[in-house]
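We modelled the chain as a single entity of 500 amino acids. Its sequence is:
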Amino acid sequence: MASVLQWEQAPAQELRIEHVTVVSPERPDALQNAAVTVHEGRITAISTGSSGNDAPMRAAGARVLDGHRLYLIPGLIDSHVHLIFIPGMTEEQEHAHPDIATAAREQIPRSYLYHGFTTLIDLISTPEVMKRWKSYDPVPDTYFCGGAALVDGYPMNYFPKPARYSLWPYMLIEPQAVAALPAGIKAAEHSPQAVVARMKADGASCVKTFFERGFGGVHDLPVPRLETTQALVRAAHAAGLPVFLHANSDEAQTFGLDTGVDVIAHGLWNVNDTGPVDVLTPGMKAILDRVIAARVGWQPTIQVLYGLQDLFNPGFLSDPKLARVLPRSLIEWYGTREGQWFHDSVAGEVAGSASARDSADSHVGMARPDLSVPIARAKAATAYLAQHHARLLFGTDTPSAPTYANPPGLNAWLEMQRLLDAGVTPAQIFEMATLSNAQALKLDHEIGTVQVGKRANLLLLRADPRRTIEAYDQIVKVILGGRVFDHPELAADHPPAAAQ
């Protein structure tokens, strides 16, 4: 017989959630004792129990969920993920361990759902990657941005030549780079107008571009000219696509504001200024005031920095929360010498010498990155924007690098804690992960609120998320397009249902 999870996946013709408290970001107050009807994956009615005449009759055979003492909210949206690779595994390692990789790829979509994320935005992807991702079931609703990287700049520089040129179909080529291109690449196909047209034809929902001179031991990567990114923004807007910019420095965020991008993807971590690191400098404040005035979307992504530190936390791989989102076989592999490859790479880079990798106990006592300064700056900038009601967006950059310390779903729960610690309120976090993200991606006609006509991506919780982020750790049901999932069944460590 099918497992409970498989049974729950079957889409009901009609679903009715009764006696529930509806919390939706467009409503100033919760809707008490409500009944919400879902038909063929969409919300068709919302009524209150104050009058018998308000509630439509149940359809024959409708599935009913009792919402007493529960809260119904829109499914959460993570507007910054990367789904091409298994976190912490290279493509070669995945091929070398097919059983581990298969279990991981089957679980990862469930792990986002386990933490309440019914919609994901992959900020650098292609139709081929999306096809593979969506071949699993269940899988969150997923949209993608085309990655418009400057040729041989970040992050193309991490991929070997000549393979990088085929891996980045939407790369930008400026006139001065044409002479150095390999044979067969047509520069005319990589103008801002051409790459946006190709993204649009491929079904992309947004454009992701970059301003990054490098980090670690690299600081001289090429960056786009102002007029190139301005042309990209114009072409994207003409096609109805918002533009995201990878930018984590004062120089990069100023560039983004000057070019008119819609979303700055990352917090203000790196500042060429002096002064107390936990206090805004005049230069930082000037940038943030421009962000506020222009209503530019801004993703703090603070957990990215803490995730790098977690690579050096000896207890990270034994955290029971990790076992809920990743298969045991993958976690055990992370603990092997092979699985520690990225940890060792970062440690060696920090130490300035590959000799640090020679220790048999490579995960203990090695040089660790000191991220206290960027973390303090990130928190100070995020607090300022939250206080001034800026257009904050919830995104995690999962995974931010080939690291196991940005686990799917769990990384978002950790980001919520970082935001709260930085001064963002639970009510602001709720709006960031629902309506604000939906509006930024021009998806608010489909998702982001509990309203008639919207896609039935919903969560049933035991607490009000506007009052506490602990509500997201008390999920009862996950509803994806009207399909109901019992929360524990989505966990990686949930025992399989016995055959009946």
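As a brief sanity check on the tokenised model: Residues 4-74+448-490 form a domain with the Urease, subunit C; domain 1 fold (CATH 2.30.40.10). The chain has two domains: 4-74+448-490, 76-308+369-440.
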